[in-house]
Amino acid sequence: MRSNWAIRPISMSVDSIIKALVLMGCIIYGILALVVVVNVICRFLFQRPLKGTVEVVEIAMLFVAFFAIPFAAKKRAHITVRLFVHRFPELMQKIVYRIGFLLSTVIAGVITYQAIVNTIYSIRHLYETTPVMFIPFAPLKFVMAFGCLILFLVLLLDTLHPIQTQEEPKGGGK
Amino acid sequence: MNPVLIGMIALAILFLLMFFEMPIAFAMALVGFCGFAVLSNFDAALNMVGLVPYSTSADYIFSVLPLFLLMGEFANISGIMGDAYGTIYKWIGHLPGGLAMATVGGCAGFGAVCGSSVATGATMCRVALPEMRKYNYDASLATGSLAAGGTLGIMIPPSMQFILYGVVAEQSIGKLFMAGIFPGILLSLLFMFAIYIGCKRNPSLGPASSKASWRERLVSLKGIWGVILLFAIVMGGIWGGFLTPTEAAAVGVFVSFILVIVRKQLNRKNMVTAIIGAFITTGMCLGILIGAMIFGYFVALTTLPMALAKFVSSLAIPPLGILICILIVYLILGCLMDALAMVLLTMPIFIPVILALGFDPIWFGVILCLMCEMALITPPVGMNVFVISGMSGVPMYTVFRGIMPFLIAMVIGMVILIAFPQISLWLPRTMLGR
Question: How far is B254 from chain A (nearest CA, A)?
């Protein structure tokens, strides 16, 4: 495909960003578990729960979610129903997958747009903070916007990239 | 246009998109967004899709999901499963079909520390299949017991299905966990009984292996301490009211990590496998959860669930008849789609109906979980069957043939659970920390 030369650098950049997100996400994942365990220990041993545990967990969840979702999309782990399409002729399969990716890209784009709008709003209203630890919402909204943007790019690249039939969506039902 | 009609058209479009292999998470979000825009306005829909992903992911309750996933991954790499299987094998391996029964027992044991059916089936496949092959077990029985036994992972707590059902149906996850224990044991026994009957009728299906001495059996008991310890801390903590499900999951992560260290399985490869595995499944689950939440907002706006509940309540059919109709819908859906997606897709619609009919939502959660178990092994889309067939190299048809006795056992289990709801509801009612 001639379009490969244009897609490749973007694809490589997205890959690098995702690697960094996975590393950070996994560290935060560990912190999430640790904070809850420390809270339980403090409560049982010292009768004093860790202040702000719920808030820290919620913030950690935000990071984990919006770093993990693009990674799952990159690995094509999002669940799909495999029923008919793999029986279609190859060209038809490619068209169907591309339409699916395009529609996914559209909704990811819409969410990204609104997340960016919300981030800008939060930056303008920095006095709006979380109730216990007084963390401004703006950086948290930014995390969501950034995660959604990466998801959007992953899906966009999947739409633009020539689809190989052996790279069909696998689904990851559990 | 009538909102209910819009809801029904949207559902049809959603199914169309799903059957054309669009990822379910994005399909639900797209249909939810477009439907919301049609029923209210574009700006309101934009606001909704901006807020829902944030509020869904930054929610303390949802943190239970990644934590239990991580606990399951650590338990997996710690190798406690292999030892637990060895213990059960020593006790019942000499019976006709004993190895397949031990496989089911092993799956139940692993289900007690892992909330994923696919992970349970896949792990047991690595441990149990070589043994069953060594003793010339019939391929359909061997793989069928693995695929069906794996489904116990979502019935015996901790269970991803219960977590997601609890979140979407706004029910106590702790109570749901407790409600799954006895039905999980019942199903395990029914599966073992099905194997026993099959092998009694046709001994070549599962020849008996050598009998272990009583001394060997007693010594082997030390192999299950890891599973018992983890299950007792996590479920005991929830049952006793000492820990919330999120705290129990985090403590479970800690204990299972200690088990990894004690059993000398702590190395870079194992840790990367465990954490990345849990991380990617978290991304998949939260993606579909966000999609389901967006779709749920739209469904609520259509008033479709309320209209359906009103319609169903007015029917001259007893509630049990309606429940059976709902279960048939789940059976059909389960044949076509993933169990997780099935729960998240249908809950916003069916839960008002279940409540209107006067059924206990905790009990229904167990029944739904059993339907999800069936969904995992029924053709043409049976995730457990795909995994076991892929790992074992046994043709899909052979595995599907092997699950037939287990499907019958599941139907019997369903009848028992419907006839005796107290099997599910007794333990949640005894919880100390309600």
Answer: 7
Chain-chain contact of A58 with B118 (C-beta, under 8 angstroms): no
Interface mutation vs chain A, best among B18, B57, B254, most A CBs within 10 Å: B57
Predicted TM-score (pTM) of the model is: 0.86
Q: Chunked in runs of 10, what are the mean pLDDT values of chain A (174 residues)?
A: 70 93 94 94 90 93 96 88 82 89 96 96 88 89 96 92 51 40
Q: Which residues neighbour A169 within 8 Å (Cβ) at sequence distance 6 or greater?
A: A76, A78, A80, A82, A97, A100, B21, B23
Chain A residue whose CA is closest to B380 = A83
The answer to whether A33 contacts B250, with C-beta atoms less than 8 Å apart, is yes
Residue A129, class by beta-carbon neighbours within 10 Å (0-12 exposed, 13-18 middle, 19+ buried)? middle
Per-residue b/e over B404-431, b at no fewer than 16 CB within 10 Å? ebbbebbeebbeebbeebebbbebbeeb
User: Is residue B75 a contact partner of residue B256, using CB atoms and an 8 Å limit?
Assistant: yes
Count of A–B CB contacts within 8 Å?
219
Cα B266 vs. chain centroid, distance in angstroms? 28
Please state, in angstroms and rounded to a whole number, the distance separating the CA atoms of residues B229 and A165: 46
Q: Distance (Å) from the C-alpha of residue B33 to the closest C-alpha of chain A? A: 8
Q: Token pair 């008919």 is at which residue?
A: A84
Measure the CA–CA gap between B224 and B286, rounded to whole angstroms. 33
Residues constituting chain A: 174
Burial string for A61-79 (b: 16+ CB within 10 Å, else e) reads: bbbbbbbbbbbbbbbbbbb
Q: Do A79 and B341 touch (CB under 8 A)?
A: yes
Contact A168, A7 (CB under 8 A): no
